[in-house]
């Protein structure tokens, strides 16, 4: 061919972009993933948003020529036949580029592909949240042709070097496999994206403060008391800690989908809240007992008297050894000086 324009006229004078460009079936379309960037993972909507560059390669037997001068030509993408590959698992697909051009080699080999932003459904299993690993499946399917006409096949080196996660999610692996439906007429290319959550933020922002607050409430409950005001302060401390737990639990609940089961983080905070609640109940019981014995001049419960007597006997035996023994009746015990 003397010029590219003459070659273009000869190739496309009788060419139709509506028919499969091969006499042999099926036409094999090889798929490669040039790069994949995770943009966002919405746990509550159970979707994953990513920027992907899929390359599709096939041979068009109607666009071949013998020439030593012109090795390839560039044409508009809508002028040639292309497999209408659709992401059937995606709720939204947005092209990054506008006008698309395709390069055709003299042997009829065509490479087609452009970066696209995809939003795909990704059901999450949050049993191990925030130490969870998720697997998201993205399906690509040729809509207008059956599996015996056009076959999507992942390339040998399907995954490129450019795969990136986000600050919260690490992209671990991407694999692809061709799946044939039970009717043997249709199939799809299933791409599995494996991501792992970075749990550092959840550990230091939620778990560690919750653990420290719970221990503060427990330690504060069993500190020795001087008067009823201090006892009331302990009850208020437990109430404040419980409110803090509720705030932290609300923060965690905002980042996870509403399911019929609780993740590990929710169980952790719930157990810590239960411990603080029990510490608060013990503080209230000790406050009521202290009030009955010291203010109302009532007889203390038998178990409490027994506990105090045993404690008093131990103290008296210790004082006898030191020569400081003095006798008191059980009714003379001062409950207001931290004996409880």
TrEMBL record:
Domain Neurotransmitter-gated ion-channel transmembrane: from-to ranges: 207-315
Key words of the record: Ion channel, Ion transport, Membrane, Transmembrane, Transmembrane helix, Transport
Protein's name according to its UniProt entry: Uncharacterized protein
Taxon lineage: Eukaryota, Metazoa, Ecdysozoa, Nematoda, Chromadorea
Organism, scientific name: Mesorhabditis belari
Its membrane topology: Multi-pass membrane protein
Chief location: membrane
Record-annotated Neurotransmitter-gated ion-channel ligand-binding domain positions: 4-181
Family of this protein: Belongs to the ligand-gated ion channel (TC 1.A.9) family.
């Amino acid at each position: 061919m003397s010029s590219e324009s003459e070659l273009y006229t000869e190739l496309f004078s009788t060419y139709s972009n509506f028919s499969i460009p091969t006499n042999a079936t099926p036409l094999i379309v090889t798929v490669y993933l040039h790069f994949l960037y995770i943009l966002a993972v919405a746990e509550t909507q159970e979707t994953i948003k990513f920027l992907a560059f899929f390359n599709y390669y096939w041979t068009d037997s109607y666009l071949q020529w013998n020439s030593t001068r012109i090795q390839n030509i560039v044409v508009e993408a809508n002028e040639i036949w292309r497999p209408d590959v659709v992401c059937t698992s995606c709720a939204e697909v947005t092209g990054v580029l506008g006008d698309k051009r395709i390069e055709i080699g003299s042997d009829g080999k065509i490479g087609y592909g452009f970066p696209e932003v995809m939003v795909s459904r990704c059901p999450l299993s949050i049993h191990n949240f925030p130490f969870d690993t998720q697997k998201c499946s993205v399906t690509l399917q040729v809509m207008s042709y059956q599996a015996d006409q056009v076959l999507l096949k992942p390339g040998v080196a399907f995954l490129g070097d450019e795969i990136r996660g986000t600050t919260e999610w690490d992209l671990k692996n991407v694999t692809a496999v061709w799946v044939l439906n039970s009717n043997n007429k249709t199939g799809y290319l299933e791409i599995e994206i494996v991501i792992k959550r970075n749990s550092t933020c959840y550990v230091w922002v939620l778990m560690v403060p919750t653990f420290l607050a719970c221990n503060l409430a427990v330690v504060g409950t069993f500190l020795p008391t001087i008067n009823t005001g201090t006892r009331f302060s302990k009850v208020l401390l437990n109430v404040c800690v419980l409110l803090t737990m509720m705030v932290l639990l609300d923060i965690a609940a905002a980042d996870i989908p509403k399911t019929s089961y609780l993740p590990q983080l929710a169980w952790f905070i719930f157990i810590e809240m239960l411990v603080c609640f029990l510490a608060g109940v013990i503080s209230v019981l000790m406050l009521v007992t202290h009030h009955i014995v010291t203010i109302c001049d009532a007889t203390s419960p038998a178990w409490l008297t027994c506990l105090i007597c045993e404690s008093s006997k131990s103290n008296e035996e210790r004082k006898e050894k030191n020569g400081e023994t003095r006798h008191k009746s059980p009714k003379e015990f001062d409950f207001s000086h931290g004996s409880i």
